[in-house]
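CHAIN AND CONFORMATION:
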Amino acid sequence: MRLCVEFSSAAPVALPWDYPHHLHGMLVQAILEARPQLDKLLHGQGFQVEGHRYRLLTASWLFAERFYRTPESLVFVPPIRWWVSSPLSALMEALSVTLLVKPERRLAAALLMVSTVRVEPMVAFEGQAALFRTISPIVVSTVELRPDGKRYRRFLSPEDAAFWRNLEQNLRRKAQGLYGDGQQFGPLAFRTVTPGRSRLVTVQGTNVRGWELEFWIWGDPVLIALGYEAGFGERNQQCFGMVRLLRTGKPPAELEQHEPGAEEAPSSP
């Protein structure tokens, strides 16, 4: 279930550069205002698979018809749109209730008013490739060892084949957590359309690097739908990894030539 939320304000809205961190806080707070019992899902175990925890909730960054930058902030000219999605209807229903009953919401130092909450139609991916564009950057990382033996987290680029392998593994673990171990899922193939744009954001004191890009995905429709609803990559609840569907249809020629699951790394034209 995907929601499009539109905010209004009497004046342009100035937000700090790390506003996605505040957006995440507003999202979780709004859900828990309506259903406090969901705290275990949002702050506790969530869906735990192979030592990884998934909340199955994602959100976009903010979009406006016009915005501009200052040295201290990003300034959005209303109306401002925000998308939130989850395959768990309880989360979206709770968010809808709060935003409709208590439309005045604080984001960092700004005061926003919810003007509309719209449910977006479901999409069927059966037998079709999907072209997606990120509306919040996709984060993919791996843990490596330094020469001194200490572990550190390295954020991967879409130019690295490991980015796409890890992205697919992440999606399969999410599916396992949601649907259980018994269901089998088919292979996937990815292909980037344009070179990605790197975005570095501070989240709770940690620098996180994500990527804005367009990409094709082809293969198992259940996995594609889950990525669309729950987000691709890591830190989805913190407003990363949400995509907009540009179109579905026949896979591009280069995908047809390489069956889903092939080891070849995606490339840009």
User: Anything to note?
Assistant: The longest helix spans residues 161-179.
